[in-house]
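This part of the workshop introduces the protein records we will be handling. A record pairs a protein's sequence with a compact description of its fold. Comparing a sequence with its C-alpha coordinates is the quickest way to learn the format. To make this concrete, we reproduce a full record directly below:
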Amino acid sequence: MNIQKHTYKFAKPLVFIALLGLGTTSCKKWVEYSPKDDFRIAATTYLQDENDYRTMTISVYTPLQWLNQVVPIGDIASDNAVAGGESASDVIALQQVDDFTVNPENATLRELWQSAYEGINRANFMTQYRDQNPLGRAVNFNGKDALYGEVSFLRAYYYFTLVRLFGGVPLFADRRLSLDESRQIQRSSKEQVYEQIEKDLLDAIGNLSPVQEQKGRITKYAAQALLGKVYLYQKKYDQAAPVLESIITSNAFSLVSDFASIFLQAGENGPESVFEIQYTNTFPYYNWDAPMRGQGNFAVQQCGIRGLAGTDAMPYAAGWSTNLPAGNLASAYEAGDQRKNATILDIDAYAAANPSYGISYQVAPYKNTGLYSQKYQPRKGQTSGQVELNYLNNFRIIRYSEVLLMAAEAWNKSSSPNDIKAKDYLNLVRRRAFGNNNHDVNAAGASLYDAILSERRLELAMEGDRYFDLVRTGMAASRLESLGFVVGKHEVYPIPLDEVRISNLEQNPNY
Protein backbone atom coordinates (compact mmCIF):
# COMPACT_ATOMS: atom_id res chain seq x y z
CA MET A 1 0.00 0.00 0.00
CA ASN A 2 1.27 3.45 -0.85
CA ILE A 3 1.13 5.84 2.08
CA GLN A 4 1.69 9.57 1.88
CA LYS A 5 3.90 11.17 4.50
CA HIS A 6 3.12 14.76 5.43
CA THR A 7 5.37 16.24 8.07
CA TYR A 8 4.75 19.57 9.74
CA LYS A 9 6.14 23.04 9.26
CA PHE A 10 4.96 26.10 11.12
CA ALA A 11 5.32 29.74 10.25
CA LYS A 12 3.38 30.28 13.45
CA PRO A 13 1.71 27.67 15.65
CA LEU A 14 -1.76 27.92 14.16
CA VAL A 15 -0.77 27.61 10.55
CA PHE A 16 -0.20 24.61 8.30
CA ILE A 17 1.92 26.06 5.51
CA ALA A 18 2.83 23.21 3.17
CA LEU A 19 2.22 19.60 2.34
CA LEU A 20 5.55 17.87 2.67
CA GLY A 21 7.05 14.59 1.67
CA LEU A 22 6.18 11.61 -0.47
CA GLY A 23 7.24 8.11 0.45
CA THR A 24 5.99 4.57 0.20
CA THR A 25 6.45 1.41 2.17
CA SER A 26 4.90 -2.00 2.41
CA CYS A 27 3.01 -1.65 5.63
CA LYS A 28 1.92 -3.70 8.60
CA LYS A 29 -0.22 -0.86 9.93
CA TRP A 30 -1.80 1.41 7.38
CA VAL A 31 -0.63 4.51 9.26
CA GLU A 32 3.02 3.75 8.59
CA TYR A 33 4.93 5.93 6.18
CA SER A 34 8.48 6.39 5.01
CA PRO A 35 10.38 9.48 6.19
CA LYS A 36 12.54 9.44 3.05
CA ASP A 37 12.52 11.63 -0.04
CA ASP A 38 10.95 14.77 1.42
CA PHE A 39 10.05 17.54 -0.97
CA ARG A 40 7.53 20.30 -1.22
CA ILE A 41 4.30 19.71 -3.10
CA ALA A 42 2.62 22.77 -4.54
CA ALA A 43 -1.07 22.85 -3.67
CA THR A 44 -1.96 23.46 -7.31
CA THR A 45 -0.36 20.18 -8.41
CA TYR A 46 -1.88 18.00 -5.71
CA LEU A 47 -5.25 16.22 -5.42
CA GLN A 48 -5.18 15.27 -9.10
CA ASP A 49 -6.63 11.76 -8.77
CA GLU A 50 -8.23 9.31 -6.36
CA ASN A 51 -4.88 8.19 -4.96
CA ASP A 52 -4.00 11.77 -4.02
CA TYR A 53 -7.25 12.14 -2.11
CA ARG A 54 -6.75 8.85 -0.30
CA THR A 55 -3.14 9.49 0.66
CA MET A 56 -3.96 13.03 1.79
CA THR A 57 -6.61 11.54 4.07
CA ILE A 58 -3.88 9.45 5.74
CA SER A 59 -2.03 12.69 6.44
CA VAL A 60 -5.13 14.02 8.22
CA TYR A 61 -4.87 11.04 10.57
CA THR A 62 -1.18 11.61 11.31
CA PRO A 63 -1.48 14.41 13.92
CA LEU A 64 -3.58 12.08 16.07
CA GLN A 65 -0.30 10.41 16.96
CA TRP A 66 1.13 13.72 18.14
CA LEU A 67 -1.65 14.26 20.69
CA ASN A 68 -0.25 11.52 22.95
CA GLN A 69 0.25 13.84 25.93
CA VAL A 70 -3.49 14.40 26.36
CA VAL A 71 -3.67 10.95 27.98
CA PRO A 72 -1.09 11.52 30.76
CA ILE A 73 -2.46 15.03 31.35
CA GLY A 74 -5.95 13.61 31.85
CA ASP A 75 -4.74 11.53 34.79
CA ILE A 76 -1.88 13.64 36.18
CA ALA A 77 -4.19 16.66 36.52
CA SER A 78 -6.60 14.52 38.53
CA ASP A 79 -6.53 12.40 41.67
CA ASN A 80 -5.50 9.36 39.63
CA ALA A 81 -1.79 10.04 39.15
CA VAL A 82 1.23 12.23 39.83
CA ALA A 83 3.81 13.51 37.37
CA GLY A 84 6.74 11.51 38.77
CA GLY A 85 9.97 11.72 36.80
CA GLU A 86 13.55 11.77 38.00
CA SER A 87 13.35 14.96 40.05
CA ALA A 88 11.37 18.15 40.60
CA SER A 89 13.05 19.64 37.53
CA ASP A 90 12.19 16.70 35.29
CA VAL A 91 9.26 16.97 32.82
CA ILE A 92 8.53 20.51 34.00
CA ALA A 93 5.45 20.81 31.78
CA LEU A 94 3.81 17.83 33.47
CA GLN A 95 4.96 18.92 36.92
CA GLN A 96 3.06 22.16 36.33
CA VAL A 97 -0.03 20.19 35.34
CA ASP A 98 0.29 18.08 38.49
CA ASP A 99 0.81 21.07 40.80
CA PHE A 100 -1.74 23.37 39.11
CA THR A 101 1.01 25.87 38.37
CA VAL A 102 0.60 25.82 34.58
CA ASN A 103 1.47 29.04 32.77
CA PRO A 104 1.01 30.14 29.12
CA GLU A 105 4.56 29.05 28.28
CA ASN A 106 3.90 25.38 29.08
CA ALA A 107 5.66 23.49 26.27
CA THR A 108 3.37 20.46 26.29
CA LEU A 109 0.19 22.51 25.97
CA ARG A 110 1.77 24.50 23.15
CA GLU A 111 2.61 21.24 21.38
CA LEU A 112 -0.96 19.98 21.73
CA TRP A 113 -2.36 23.27 20.39
CA GLN A 114 -0.04 23.14 17.39
CA SER A 115 -0.70 19.48 16.67
CA ALA A 116 -4.47 19.81 16.83
CA TYR A 117 -4.44 22.81 14.50
CA GLU A 118 -2.11 20.97 12.13
CA GLY A 119 -4.78 18.27 11.92
CA ILE A 120 -7.53 20.86 11.42
CA ASN A 121 -5.65 22.60 8.64
CA ARG A 122 -5.05 19.29 6.87
CA ALA A 123 -8.74 18.45 7.17
CA ASN A 124 -9.63 21.92 5.91
CA PHE A 125 -7.34 21.50 2.89
CA MET A 126 -9.41 18.43 2.01
CA THR A 127 -12.67 20.31 2.66
CA GLN A 128 -11.55 23.23 0.50
CA TYR A 129 -11.09 20.93 -2.49
CA ARG A 130 -13.86 18.42 -1.89
CA ASP A 131 -15.89 19.36 -4.98
CA GLN A 132 -13.08 20.61 -7.18
CA ASN A 133 -9.33 20.18 -6.92
CA PRO A 134 -6.96 23.20 -6.86
CA LEU A 135 -7.09 23.39 -10.66
CA GLY A 136 -10.88 23.59 -10.64
CA ARG A 137 -11.46 20.03 -11.85
CA ALA A 138 -13.86 17.61 -10.18
CA VAL A 139 -12.25 14.33 -9.12
CA ASN A 140 -14.99 11.77 -8.52
CA PHE A 141 -14.58 8.18 -7.41
CA ASN A 142 -16.46 5.50 -5.52
CA GLY A 143 -16.15 5.93 -1.77
CA LYS A 144 -15.27 9.63 -1.85
CA ASP A 145 -18.12 10.62 0.49
CA ALA A 146 -17.09 7.92 2.95
CA LEU A 147 -13.51 9.15 2.77
CA TYR A 148 -14.73 12.62 3.67
CA GLY A 149 -16.66 11.10 6.55
CA GLU A 150 -13.28 10.15 8.02
CA VAL A 151 -12.01 13.69 7.47
CA SER A 152 -15.07 15.15 9.22
CA PHE A 153 -14.57 12.87 12.22
CA LEU A 154 -10.90 13.76 12.48
CA ARG A 155 -11.55 17.50 12.41
CA ALA A 156 -14.22 17.01 15.08
CA TYR A 157 -11.75 15.08 17.23
CA TYR A 158 -9.08 17.78 16.89
CA TYR A 159 -11.56 20.48 17.90
CA PHE A 160 -12.84 18.31 20.76
CA THR A 161 -9.27 18.00 22.02
CA LEU A 162 -8.85 21.77 21.89
CA VAL A 163 -12.18 22.67 23.51
CA ARG A 164 -11.59 20.24 26.38
CA LEU A 165 -8.17 21.73 27.05
CA PHE A 166 -8.71 25.42 26.34
CA GLY A 167 -12.44 26.17 26.09
CA GLY A 168 -13.37 28.43 23.17
CA VAL A 169 -10.69 28.51 20.46
CA PRO A 170 -10.24 29.96 16.95
CA LEU A 171 -12.76 28.18 14.72
CA PHE A 172 -12.47 27.72 10.96
CA ALA A 173 -13.70 24.83 8.85
CA ASP A 174 -14.03 25.82 5.21
CA ARG A 175 -10.41 26.15 4.10
CA ARG A 176 -6.78 26.07 5.12
CA LEU A 177 -5.83 29.46 6.56
CA SER A 178 -3.08 31.64 5.14
CA LEU A 179 -0.52 33.12 7.51
CA ASP A 180 -2.16 36.55 7.44
CA GLU A 181 -5.62 35.06 8.06
CA SER A 182 -4.33 33.06 11.01
CA ARG A 183 -3.03 36.23 12.63
CA GLN A 184 -6.44 37.84 12.48
CA ILE A 185 -8.83 35.09 13.53
CA GLN A 186 -10.05 35.32 17.12
CA ARG A 187 -11.51 32.82 19.56
CA SER A 188 -15.03 31.52 19.09
CA SER A 189 -17.14 30.56 22.06
CA LYS A 190 -17.08 27.07 23.48
CA GLU A 191 -20.67 26.65 22.32
CA GLN A 192 -19.77 27.57 18.74
CA VAL A 193 -16.89 25.08 18.73
CA TYR A 194 -19.18 22.32 19.99
CA GLU A 195 -21.71 23.23 17.30
CA GLN A 196 -19.06 22.65 14.62
CA ILE A 197 -17.99 19.39 16.26
CA GLU A 198 -21.56 18.13 16.21
CA LYS A 199 -21.99 19.17 12.58
CA ASP A 200 -18.84 17.29 11.55
CA LEU A 201 -19.80 14.16 13.47
CA LEU A 202 -23.29 14.10 12.00
CA ASP A 203 -21.72 14.41 8.55
CA ALA A 204 -19.38 11.54 9.41
CA ILE A 205 -22.24 9.36 10.65
CA GLY A 206 -24.18 10.00 7.46
CA ASN A 207 -21.31 8.97 5.20
CA LEU A 208 -19.31 6.31 7.04
CA SER A 209 -19.74 2.56 6.92
CA PRO A 210 -20.13 0.56 10.16
CA VAL A 211 -17.09 -1.49 9.14
CA GLN A 212 -13.77 -0.55 7.59
CA GLU A 213 -11.59 -2.99 5.65
CA GLN A 214 -8.51 -1.63 7.42
CA LYS A 215 -8.80 -1.92 11.19
CA GLY A 216 -8.30 1.33 13.04
CA ARG A 217 -9.86 3.56 10.43
CA ILE A 218 -12.87 5.59 11.47
CA THR A 219 -16.25 3.87 11.32
CA LYS A 220 -19.81 5.07 11.72
CA TYR A 221 -19.79 3.62 15.24
CA ALA A 222 -16.70 5.62 16.21
CA ALA A 223 -18.44 8.79 15.03
CA GLN A 224 -21.60 7.90 16.97
CA ALA A 225 -19.60 7.18 20.11
CA LEU A 226 -17.69 10.46 19.92
CA LEU A 227 -20.93 12.34 19.26
CA GLY A 228 -22.47 10.72 22.33
CA LYS A 229 -19.46 11.81 24.38
CA VAL A 230 -19.65 15.34 22.99
CA TYR A 231 -23.33 15.48 23.98
CA LEU A 232 -22.48 14.37 27.53
CA TYR A 233 -19.89 17.12 27.83
CA GLN A 234 -22.67 19.58 27.06
CA LYS A 235 -25.21 17.82 29.28
CA LYS A 236 -27.37 17.04 26.24
CA TYR A 237 -28.48 13.77 27.75
CA ASP A 238 -31.63 13.39 25.65
CA GLN A 239 -29.55 13.56 22.48
CA ALA A 240 -26.78 11.33 23.82
CA ALA A 241 -28.96 8.40 24.92
CA PRO A 242 -30.34 7.30 21.51
CA VAL A 243 -27.01 7.80 19.72
CA LEU A 244 -25.20 5.58 22.21
CA GLU A 245 -28.09 3.13 22.35
CA SER A 246 -27.79 2.56 18.61
CA ILE A 247 -24.21 1.33 19.07
CA ILE A 248 -25.25 -1.10 21.78
CA THR A 249 -28.20 -2.53 19.85
CA SER A 250 -26.03 -3.01 16.76
CA ASN A 251 -24.30 -5.94 18.53
CA ALA A 252 -21.13 -4.93 16.71
CA PHE A 253 -19.00 -4.93 19.89
CA SER A 254 -18.51 -7.12 22.93
CA LEU A 255 -16.68 -6.94 26.24
CA VAL A 256 -13.47 -8.94 26.41
CA SER A 257 -13.56 -11.28 29.41
CA ASP A 258 -9.85 -10.80 30.24
CA PHE A 259 -9.59 -7.06 30.89
CA ALA A 260 -5.78 -6.98 30.87
CA SER A 261 -5.63 -8.52 27.40
CA ILE A 262 -7.19 -5.40 25.86
CA PHE A 263 -3.93 -3.50 26.36
CA LEU A 264 -1.57 -6.15 24.99
CA GLN A 265 -0.31 -5.98 21.42
CA ALA A 266 -2.62 -8.86 20.51
CA GLY A 267 -5.56 -6.88 21.89
CA GLU A 268 -5.26 -3.94 19.51
CA ASN A 269 -8.35 -3.16 17.43
CA GLY A 270 -10.18 -6.03 19.10
CA PRO A 271 -13.89 -6.72 19.66
CA GLU A 272 -14.12 -3.96 22.29
CA SER A 273 -12.34 -1.33 20.21
CA VAL A 274 -14.50 1.55 18.97
CA PHE A 275 -11.72 4.05 18.28
CA GLU A 276 -7.96 3.67 18.71
CA ILE A 277 -5.12 5.96 17.72
CA GLN A 278 -2.75 3.81 15.69
CA TYR A 279 0.97 3.79 16.44
CA THR A 280 3.76 1.84 14.82
CA ASN A 281 7.44 0.91 15.07
CA THR A 282 7.94 -1.10 11.88
CA PHE A 283 9.19 1.88 9.91
CA PRO A 284 10.28 4.20 12.71
CA TYR A 285 10.23 7.92 12.19
CA TYR A 286 11.53 10.00 15.07
CA ASN A 287 13.18 13.28 15.92
CA TRP A 288 14.54 14.27 19.32
CA ASP A 289 13.90 17.91 18.45
CA ALA A 290 10.20 17.02 18.21
CA PRO A 291 9.90 13.77 20.18
CA MET A 292 6.10 13.65 20.10
CA ARG A 293 5.96 14.07 16.32
CA GLY A 294 6.94 10.55 15.33
CA GLN A 295 4.90 7.47 14.51
CA GLY A 296 5.56 5.81 17.87
CA ASN A 297 3.73 6.38 21.15
CA PHE A 298 6.02 8.62 23.23
CA ALA A 299 3.77 8.29 26.30
CA VAL A 300 4.62 4.60 26.69
CA GLN A 301 8.28 5.31 27.37
CA GLN A 302 7.26 7.97 29.87
CA CYS A 303 5.38 5.62 32.17
CA GLY A 304 8.02 2.88 32.27
CA ILE A 305 10.14 2.17 35.35
CA ARG A 306 13.36 4.16 35.52
CA GLY A 307 16.50 2.04 35.51
CA LEU A 308 14.59 -1.24 35.23
CA ALA A 309 16.77 -4.26 34.57
CA GLY A 310 16.43 -8.02 34.83
CA THR A 311 16.81 -11.30 32.98
CA ASP A 312 15.80 -11.77 29.37
CA ALA A 313 12.60 -13.44 30.56
CA MET A 314 11.46 -10.29 32.39
CA PRO A 315 8.88 -8.79 29.97
CA TYR A 316 9.11 -5.08 30.77
CA ALA A 317 11.45 -2.45 29.36
CA ALA A 318 12.85 0.55 31.22
CA GLY A 319 11.24 3.98 31.07
CA TRP A 320 11.20 7.39 32.74
CA SER A 321 8.93 6.88 35.78
CA THR A 322 6.39 9.48 34.70
CA ASN A 323 2.59 9.39 35.15
CA LEU A 324 2.60 7.33 38.34
CA PRO A 325 -0.76 6.02 39.64
CA ALA A 326 -1.69 7.45 43.03
CA GLY A 327 -2.37 5.37 46.11
CA ASN A 328 -5.81 6.98 46.16
CA LEU A 329 -6.62 5.26 42.86
CA ALA A 330 -5.27 1.90 43.97
CA SER A 331 -7.39 1.93 47.12
CA ALA A 332 -10.55 2.72 45.10
CA TYR A 333 -10.69 -0.80 43.67
CA GLU A 334 -12.64 -3.46 45.57
CA ALA A 335 -11.16 -6.87 46.29
CA GLY A 336 -11.65 -9.18 43.34
CA ASP A 337 -11.74 -6.43 40.71
CA GLN A 338 -9.45 -7.66 37.92
CA ARG A 339 -9.02 -4.11 36.65
CA LYS A 340 -6.71 -3.16 39.54
CA ASN A 341 -3.79 -5.35 38.50
CA ALA A 342 -4.46 -4.61 34.83
CA THR A 343 -4.27 -0.87 35.53
CA ILE A 344 -1.61 -0.56 38.25
CA LEU A 345 1.77 -2.26 38.49
CA ASP A 346 3.19 -2.50 42.01
CA ILE A 347 6.81 -3.12 41.07
CA ASP A 348 7.89 -4.22 44.55
CA ALA A 349 5.14 -6.84 44.69
CA TYR A 350 5.89 -7.92 41.12
CA ALA A 351 9.60 -8.34 41.83
CA ALA A 352 8.87 -10.33 45.00
CA ALA A 353 6.49 -12.61 43.10
CA ASN A 354 9.02 -13.18 40.30
CA PRO A 355 12.45 -13.63 41.94
CA SER A 356 13.84 -15.49 38.91
CA TYR A 357 13.64 -12.26 36.90
CA GLY A 358 16.37 -10.64 39.00
CA ILE A 359 14.61 -7.29 38.84
CA SER A 360 16.38 -4.08 39.83
CA TYR A 361 15.28 -0.49 39.29
CA GLN A 362 15.65 3.07 40.51
CA VAL A 363 13.74 2.89 43.77
CA ALA A 364 12.53 6.43 44.31
CA PRO A 365 11.35 8.55 41.39
CA TYR A 366 10.10 12.02 42.25
CA LYS A 367 6.76 11.86 44.10
CA ASN A 368 7.26 8.12 44.30
CA THR A 369 4.08 6.11 44.85
CA GLY A 370 5.63 2.70 44.23
CA LEU A 371 3.05 2.25 41.46
CA TYR A 372 3.27 2.37 37.67
CA SER A 373 0.77 2.47 34.82
CA GLN A 374 0.25 -1.12 33.73
CA LYS A 375 -2.04 -0.49 30.74
CA TYR A 376 0.71 1.18 28.75
CA GLN A 377 3.79 -0.20 30.49
CA PRO A 378 6.63 -0.51 27.94
CA ARG A 379 7.40 -4.07 26.98
CA LYS A 380 10.39 -5.60 25.28
CA GLY A 381 10.12 -6.06 21.54
CA GLN A 382 7.52 -3.36 21.03
CA THR A 383 9.84 -0.60 19.85
CA SER A 384 12.66 -0.18 17.36
CA GLY A 385 15.02 2.45 15.99
CA GLN A 386 15.23 5.15 18.64
CA VAL A 387 13.61 2.93 21.24
CA GLU A 388 12.26 5.65 23.53
CA LEU A 389 10.24 7.28 20.74
CA ASN A 390 8.84 4.33 18.82
CA TYR A 391 6.56 2.19 20.96
CA LEU A 392 3.80 0.72 18.81
CA ASN A 393 1.10 0.67 21.52
CA ASN A 394 -2.20 2.05 20.27
CA PHE A 395 -4.10 4.37 22.56
CA ARG A 396 -7.54 2.89 23.24
CA ILE A 397 -9.51 6.13 22.99
CA ILE A 398 -13.08 4.81 23.09
CA ARG A 399 -13.82 1.26 24.18
CA TYR A 400 -17.19 -0.48 24.19
CA SER A 401 -17.23 -0.47 27.98
CA GLU A 402 -17.13 3.33 27.86
CA VAL A 403 -20.03 3.33 25.41
CA LEU A 404 -22.02 1.31 27.98
CA LEU A 405 -21.09 3.71 30.78
CA MET A 406 -21.87 6.77 28.67
CA ALA A 407 -25.23 5.29 27.75
CA ALA A 408 -25.89 4.53 31.42
CA GLU A 409 -25.11 8.14 32.31
CA ALA A 410 -27.28 9.49 29.51
CA TRP A 411 -30.28 7.34 30.40
CA ASN A 412 -29.95 8.17 34.09
CA LYS A 413 -29.79 11.93 33.43
CA SER A 414 -32.32 12.15 30.60
CA SER A 415 -35.48 14.20 30.99
CA SER A 416 -37.33 10.85 31.00
CA PRO A 417 -34.84 8.71 32.92
CA ASN A 418 -34.52 5.00 32.30
CA ASP A 419 -32.63 3.72 35.32
CA ILE A 420 -33.35 0.11 34.40
CA LYS A 421 -31.25 0.48 31.26
CA ALA A 422 -28.69 2.56 33.12
CA LYS A 423 -28.23 -0.16 35.76
CA ASP A 424 -28.08 -2.90 33.14
CA TYR A 425 -25.28 -1.18 31.25
CA LEU A 426 -23.37 -0.29 34.41
CA ASN A 427 -23.62 -3.85 35.70
CA LEU A 428 -22.42 -5.34 32.42
CA VAL A 429 -19.17 -3.49 33.00
CA ARG A 430 -18.99 -4.53 36.66
CA ARG A 431 -19.70 -8.19 35.88
CA ARG A 432 -16.78 -8.25 33.49
CA ALA A 433 -14.60 -6.65 36.17
CA PHE A 434 -15.46 -9.22 38.86
CA GLY A 435 -16.39 -12.25 36.80
CA ASN A 436 -19.78 -12.54 38.51
CA ASN A 437 -22.91 -10.57 39.40
CA ASN A 438 -22.22 -10.40 43.12
CA HIS A 439 -21.15 -6.76 42.80
CA ASP A 440 -24.12 -5.47 40.85
CA VAL A 441 -25.27 -1.96 41.70
CA ASN A 442 -28.93 -1.66 42.73
CA ALA A 443 -29.50 2.07 42.97
CA ALA A 444 -31.49 4.78 41.26
CA GLY A 445 -31.46 8.52 40.65
CA ALA A 446 -28.56 10.50 42.07
CA SER A 447 -27.06 7.45 43.80
CA LEU A 448 -26.96 5.58 40.50
CA TYR A 449 -25.36 8.59 38.80
CA ASP A 450 -22.63 8.65 41.43
CA ALA A 451 -22.06 4.93 40.91
CA ILE A 452 -21.75 5.40 37.15
CA LEU A 453 -19.17 8.16 37.54
CA SER A 454 -17.22 6.09 40.07
CA GLU A 455 -17.24 3.21 37.61
CA ARG A 456 -15.85 5.45 34.89
CA ARG A 457 -12.89 6.17 37.11
CA LEU A 458 -12.17 2.49 37.76
CA GLU A 459 -12.77 1.34 34.20
CA LEU A 460 -10.92 4.12 32.40
CA ALA A 461 -8.14 4.87 34.89
CA MET A 462 -4.83 5.85 33.25
CA GLU A 463 -6.57 6.27 29.88
CA GLY A 464 -6.76 10.06 30.12
CA ASP A 465 -10.39 10.82 31.01
CA ARG A 466 -10.44 11.46 34.75
CA TYR A 467 -9.58 15.19 34.88
CA PHE A 468 -11.98 16.00 32.06
CA ASP A 469 -14.73 13.98 33.76
CA LEU A 470 -14.25 15.84 37.03
CA VAL A 471 -14.45 19.19 35.25
CA ARG A 472 -17.48 18.40 33.08
CA THR A 473 -19.46 16.97 36.01
CA GLY A 474 -18.63 19.84 38.38
CA MET A 475 -16.74 17.55 40.75
CA ALA A 476 -13.28 19.03 40.21
CA ALA A 477 -13.58 21.50 43.09
CA SER A 478 -14.43 18.92 45.72
CA ARG A 479 -11.93 16.32 44.49
CA LEU A 480 -8.99 18.48 43.46
CA GLU A 481 -8.96 21.67 45.56
CA SER A 482 -6.66 20.06 48.12
CA LEU A 483 -4.24 19.38 45.24
CA GLY A 484 -4.22 23.03 44.11
CA PHE A 485 -7.24 23.30 41.80
CA VAL A 486 -8.69 26.83 41.71
CA VAL A 487 -12.33 27.23 40.75
CA GLY A 488 -12.76 29.67 37.87
CA LYS A 489 -9.26 29.02 36.57
CA HIS A 490 -8.25 25.39 36.27
CA GLU A 491 -11.31 24.15 34.40
CA VAL A 492 -9.28 25.04 31.29
CA TYR A 493 -5.62 25.61 30.48
CA PRO A 494 -3.99 28.86 29.33
CA ILE A 495 -3.85 29.76 25.66
CA PRO A 496 -0.21 29.33 24.56
CA LEU A 497 1.70 32.58 24.88
CA ASP A 498 2.80 32.62 21.23
CA GLU A 499 -0.84 32.67 20.16
CA VAL A 500 -1.67 35.51 22.53
CA ARG A 501 1.27 37.58 21.29
CA ILE A 502 1.03 36.92 17.56
CA SER A 503 -2.73 36.71 17.09
CA ASN A 504 -3.73 38.84 20.06
CA LEU A 505 -5.97 36.08 21.36
CA GLU A 506 -7.81 36.68 24.60
CA GLN A 507 -6.25 34.70 27.45
CA ASN A 508 -8.31 32.45 29.69
CA PRO A 509 -9.23 33.96 33.06
CA ASN A 510 -6.62 34.21 35.82
CA TYR A 511 -3.63 33.18 33.70
